Amino acid sequence: MLTVPDALDRLDAALNAARAAGADAADALYVGDGSTSISVRLGKLEDIGRSEGEEVGIRVFVGQQSASVSSSDLSPAALAVAAERVVAMARLAPEDKWAGLAPADRLLTGAIPDLDIDDGSDPEAGSLRDLAMAAEDAARAVAGVTNSEGGGASAGRAVTALATSTGFRGGRRSTSYGASASVLAGEGSDMQRDYAWHSARHFADLEGPAIIGARAGERAVRRLNPIKLETGTLPIVFDPRVGSSLVGHLIGAITGSAITRGTSFLKDALGTVVFDPSITIVDDPLRRRGLRSRGFDGEGLPVAITRIIDHGQLTGWLLDSASARQLGLAPTGHAARGTSGPPGAGATNLHLEGGSVTPAALMADIRRGFYVTELIGMGVNGLTGDYSRGASGFLIENGEITVPVAEVTIAGNLVDMFKALVAADDLSFRHATNVPTLRIDGMTIAGA
């Protein structure tokens, strides 16, 4: 894996070769990563994996024609050949009047923010094995756990660098760590599975394996002997680990590609109130040690904290340069890309700000409802907002979470769901997308 300065030197060479071959403009992206993963099961080592890879992507423009190529051979000679090839490809491509690099006057200048996403550690495989073993042992020690799907631990390092013919040069190094456990409770046809996991940028920030394992075991045991609910309309409460998916559906509906194609159920909602006024959703690429933190976007533009939803109102789209040109707007610093094609747009570290009541108070007036802890399937129509997913969780009776529930479907429309959504005050920052406990009244449950 190259250092950031060495990666930028390779990218500069690729850009010089592209210009020499006739490109009017170009950018180049380096991605290098390596990771070690350990899995154990029933107290024994099951697998050790190590993966490493490096790739450079070159994108060129000849007038309004463009093409991209990627290469895992990073030698100067191979990159020169790739640059010549991609220029030849661009000359055969159809014209796209929206295509082009990000505006030069909007590129990040000055120092790239230090977001503390590389702790400099490189834990040995033995340390990761011990971590995975401890997580599984803690899960199996929970009374009622009868089998295990295993424990796991991982450590990774990545280097990303971007250079453009308009003058941007920047890169970043990052580390990532994870630990997990997945176990089963019960016997025969009454067995139930659940899991727990945690990820962090710094090894020291990773949650203790005993906590992770115990959480997995307790969740599995709690799901034993589930009931089925009758079909009807009930208040739905989403546990934070699944409520984050609702924010994901919002993001998918407000990216530039969805808006320019007219394939979003929110395509006419810019500047309107789409959530309850109590709801604010923030995209924060500058969070220190955040799982998706970055100091510049996929086109070299500066990034900033954005209130995507501000007191219920949709404030803007997430735009790369091409979609921004098509919409007559400015790019928003949300470009995201890989080495094999042009940028799209996406969010970074997301959170839905907490409300003013505890989860208990949020549920206190629910005589009969459904607390969702797991969602199954992807039954969401991005064009209409229609929502239908399999779910399991627990019955809410008189404000209390009681018996487990399985094999039901919850349905609604995201437009109505967003407007009805109410948040509790238990927001914590554990993942890339974080939400508190969420409540939505008026959803349909299809059960027994």
From TrEMBL:
The UniProt record lists the Metalloprotease TldD/E C-terminal domain at: 231-447
Q: What Gene3D superfamilies does its record include?
A: PmbA/TldD superfamily
Domain named Metalloprotease TldD/E central: residues? 122-224
The record's InterPro entries line, in alphabetical order, gives: Metalloprtase-TldD/E_C, Metalloprtase-TldD/E_cen_dom, Metalloprtase-TldD/E_N, PmbA, TldD/PmbA_N, TldD/PmbA_sf
An example of a GO molecular function for this protein is:
metallopeptidase activity
Annotated GO biological process: proteolysis
Gene Ontology CC terms, in alphabetical order:
cytosol
- Report domain Metalloprotease TldD/E N-terminal positions: 26-90
Which PANTHER family does this one have? METALLOPROTEASE PMBA (PTHR43421)
Q: Which family does it belong to?
A: Belongs to the peptidase U62 family.
Q: What is this protein called?
A: TldD/PmbA family protein
